[in-house]
Write a structure and sequence with these properties.
3 helices; 93 residues; globular; 5 strands
């Protein structure tokens, strides 16, 4: 994963979009963690295994990700069994 890459991660409220910020500092006895932005002013540290999908798309800012969190994006991706590559088609084209 690269800095500012859009990722799909398992968050507290379910699967959601986040922006990868980097690796979290190592803590003895813990799994490797990553830092992600989960909103305009919110940051979280997640275990690396909670990252479901790295899109390969670099966000220029939080506005790109907020646009994808909108109801229009949810309606455009359709049923959950659709491929995650539809994220690229709906949001960033």
């Amino acid at each position: 994963m690269r800095t500012d890459e859009v990722i799909v991660a398992r968050l507290k409220g379910g699967i959601g979009l986040a922006r990868f910020l980097g690796d979290a500092p190592a803590v003895a006895g813990r799994r490797r963690q990553v830092r992600v932005s989960i909103g305009r002013n919110r940051e979280a540290r997640l275990p690396e295994d909670r990252v479901v999908f790295a899109t390969g798309v670099i966000a220029t800012g939080e506005d790109d990700i907020e646009r994808c969190r909108s109801p229009m994006w949810r309606s455009c991706t359709g049923a959950p069994r659709r491929r995650a590559s539809s994220l690229r088609l709906c949001c960033f084209t």
